[in-house]
Amino acid sequence: MFFVSSRYFKNTNMTFFTILILSTLAATVYTSGNYGDINKVPTTGASCATAKQDKLKVCGVEASKRLAQNDLGRINKYKSKILSVAKQKKIDPSIIAGIMSRESRGGSVLKNGWGDHNNGFGLMQVDKRYHKLKGTWNSETHIAQAVDIFISTYNQIKKKFPGQSNERIL
Q: Which residues form the active site (predicted)?
């Protein structure tokens, strides 16, 4: 679920999804913004529990590669919106795609735009209990709101741990 939570940023599954999901997008625009270079973030890959979402019998980096490949077609439908928001917010588009992949599998696990027991909304699962929802579940407005939440959380972590690199904060 996407809201201000340090739990979210400890999830290394999202990190590796991010690297793989938008390798094709990253080639068309800058690959880092004001919030670090996702390609410099070490990862152990997807947990076995995460891999089971796609009935995979592997874990770790190999599972992440397969999950990312499975999500790529769905995420690519939102490529122009991702790139637009990434440019506006000066953020690596791979971070946006990684959050989309991890939170909603590119929308495939949502029911009428909702997930997480009807608390998470949209591709990036903005939590209605903590945020006033903006836009439709798959709109650029929704993506921009979720990125603003990410940036706010990122800045809170950076303030709390000022000596950390951007990549460590990711």
A: 103, 116
